[in-house]
Amino acid sequence: MSSHDKLLLAGVLALGLLAAPALAFDFGRPATPQDIKLWDIDVGPDGKGLPDGSGTAVQGKQIFADNCAACHGDNGVGGIKDRLAGGQGTLASNMPVKTVGSFWPYATTLFDYIRRAMPYPTPGSLSTDETYALTAYILSLNGIVPADGKVDRDSLPKIRMPNRDGFIPEAEFDPAKLFRKK
Amino acid sequence: MTTRAPIDLLPRPAKLSRRGFVGGLSAGILGAAATEANAETLADVPDRGPGADLSAHSERSRFAKLDRIPEATPGKRNVDPGDAINSKTPHQKLVGNITPTDLHYERSHSGVPDIDPAQHRLLIHGMVSKPLVFSVEDLKRMPSVTRVVFIECTGNGWENWKKADPDVTVQNTHGLVSTNEWTGVPLKFLIDLVARDKGANWMLAEGGDGAGVDRSIPLTDEIVNEAFVAYGQNGEPLRPAHGFPMRLLMPGFEGNLNIKWLRRLKFGNAPWMTRWETARYTQLLADGKARQFQLRMETNSVITQPSGMMQIQPGYNRISGLAWSGHGKIAKVEISTDGAKSWKQAQLSLPVLSKAQVRFQMDWVWDGKPTRIVSRSTDEKGNVQPDRQSFIAAMGTNALFHYNAQQTWSIDEAGRVRNVLA
């Protein structure tokens, strides 16, 4: 092959590469299992995503006093931020009080939200067991678990919240009907 | 952007006094601050001369006072920025269809993170064949779309659920909606890259803010075809308050779904029931049940000129405002100047874009008698903005979010414009 031919071939190859459709590998890099484990924090209503560990309401009481009461008040009432307890029976009144006990439909959401967003100044600073303990304590403040109750990945999704049936999905985006084959 | 030349629906009043005309304009358009003295004759206009040095970054005129209003909960306004949960757009001082970037409304759940784009990553995983990690530069190399769309906080209008504070402006009542041009990568392109599994019909979008705000998004054809991951806002990188370096853009849907500081998309087959789709952004009805997954923003409109706290003069007045719908394009806007007894069709400033705000306007001669002015929009799907009474009959007064009833402004014998319930 002459040097001229080689040059021509190289040119054709280069053009061919440029004209080829973009490959998936051209963008980003594969996510490793370690990547995913680090960021995959969401918890579903079926308990999927809940980590190993557990906590009791008794443990949670002290953790709450140390980390939460400044904003949410002692026992989750009377703070400068969201009230967490009470309000059951008020939703149909002119002054509804929406709390974990009166309004939240899933206990799993409470664990997920504490783990991702709380305490407000230092989200992510609590251990898994502390997060379970806080979850148990806030549920106990609402009479949903006993004052000496304990929660873990098995028990939390089984808790039936008082307002579990209080929601009406919008017809257009009803999860029970959307994407069902006609 | 082209604007159709206004057609005078009413003839100019022959006896329009100069004083009345100036008075009408002084109601506050463009937010010009009061000058030291008006130029009565051309001789009073200051001489020309060399101006200030050119600069790398242009500022607004010192005579144009435009600010957002940081707000806590409804009725708690102009709070310390540390206590604010949102900041509202001054619609009473704006013209046209596009909101200036620095005045686009803001709702942030855990402050505004200071993110170095070199250290930001987007993880896409879950029910996919090829989970991938992208940098900002990766996204910028991909095919892009650019689109003008409104984003509206579901709390927009929440001042008026139970009562109408007369002493508020349209910034207070409707400052949680804005329209910008956004640029980014189509969601469909990213979905194809990671090869979403069959049956992965829901997507969790999560932000890189302190709260890690996350929402479940149903992957309907409409959403797959229209959503995009934006890195550009009005031609420049996103402002930090609006999600720098990247955010989800969901044309026509709840502002909260447009996840800012986006760092994770996870595919699944059911919603995650996050805090923001259960405890928040669900609408409590009068019977105590709450509407959930009311994701689309409704047909809406509001008169911004004249509006709350302005004062008008008898004679010629131009009524102007904004209309928008999460269902598509605005088909028409009607205005009543007699308290919703009779309606006239307003003009729309072209182009009318799907899921973007559009300016409407109409000439009006005010006879000086107390009255009420109100607008109502109709979108291309035939959705009509409801009057307040039928709206409240359907939604009650506890819903807090998704308020789109017609906005009524009362005008008293002195021309004072005030917020009222119809």
From TrEMBL, chain A:
Annotated signal peptide: 1-24
GO molecular-function term, one example from the UniProt record = metal ion binding
In the UniProt record, does the keyword Cytoplasm occur?
A: no
The UniProt keyword set, sorted, is: Heme, Iron, Metal-binding, Signal
Cytochrome c domain location is 55-142
One protein family per Pfam = Cytochrom_C
Q: Which InterPro entries match?
A: Cyt_c-like_dom (IPR009056), Cyt_c-like_dom_sf (IPR036909), Cytochrome_c-type_DH (IPR051459)
Q: What is this protein called?
A: Cytochrome c
Could you tell me which species this protein originates from? Bradyrhizobium stylosanthis
